[in-house]
Structure formats: structure tokens, C-alpha cells
């Protein structure tokens, strides 16, 4: 019985680790996406100040 519960422990640990890694990856992508959106807005603002027409 010990080996069965030992296997279950490792299974749960592996699933937990995978979910933590996936969650961290999604958070990193979300942060990077927001940074890119901010950069695009900044570029659009700079272009408008220079008189360049931008279609949304």
C-alpha cells in the first residue's frame, strides 16, 4: 500500500507543479501583452503629434 500512496503523492505533486508553471506562463504573457498595448498607444500618440493619420 505504501507504494500506491507514494505514487499518488507524486502524481498530485506533478499536476500541481504543471498548473503552477502554466499559470505563471499565462501571467507572464498577460503582462507582456499589456506592455505591448501600452507601446502601441505611445507610438500612436507620437504619430498623431507629428500629424500622421491613424485609422483605428
TrEMBL record:
Q: What InterPro entries does the record point to?
A: Put_ccm
Q: Which UniProt keywords apply?
A: Membrane, Transmembrane, Transmembrane helix
Any transmembrane segments, and where? 12-29
Q: What is this protein called?
A: CcmD family protein
Annotated source species: Acanthopleuribacter pedis
